[in-house]
What we know:
InterPro entries: D-Glu_cyclase, Putative_hydro-lyase, UPF0317. By secondary structure, this protein is α+β, with helices and mostly antiparallel strands.
Amino acid sequence: MNTPAEVREQIRAGKWNKPTTGFNFETLQANIVILPVQYAGAFKEYTRSNPKPCPVLEVIHPGSYVSELADGSDIRKDVPKYRIYRQGELVEQAEDVTEIWQNDFVTFLIGCSFTFENALIDSGIRLRHIEEKKNVAMYRTNIETVEAGPFHGPMVVSMRPVPQEQAKLAAEITEKFPRTHGGPVHIGDPREIGIQNLDQPDYGEAIELKEGEVPVFWACGVTPQEAVLRAKLPIAITHEPGHMFVMDKTYDELD
């Protein structure tokens, strides 16, 4: 199994551009949001007001691109794929953002549900997006986040099919991981949270719901991308959904 450092090395070398789900079941993974310092205060308030989809693990301040949770890391190069937004438009997807890096950039590392997947698997809950080597399915909902400054928008959720009899167990397990989204925000009928068709995720790949299974929805760290899009900042950088920043530390090692 690859270590986090080895994965980051492969990413920098252009040898790993796939989703990071299932790669390592021990250490933290993070969503990223990079934006100019003048917007950092409002975005920080947005994350505080929406802790379920936006649990902040670390803030990398201006002038630095090294995470304290990943030795020798370089946030400009260590994400498999980036999304670059200008004025609320996705203008580019890249594997390295060094050339457009600005000294006033602040990086927010936001908890990711990939972190608790090992705990689900260890409890006998199968995760078929991992078995099928797919990205997790993610959907916009009708759940509005709390606005802060220019940042607002719908909550995005990730969905994993779980056998009906294991849904309660899945909720109990993930509630122990509040800094990586915690327990589900919804179990059951997707239409109740504004999702009309599970076969058409807004991000990631569709996972078939089989007989006897129920869809379980967790808050997702792609939510800030929706907020950044609506804020129409001059420039902002995020990860490609499912392509996370891989850290060295485990959940239990968080301060």
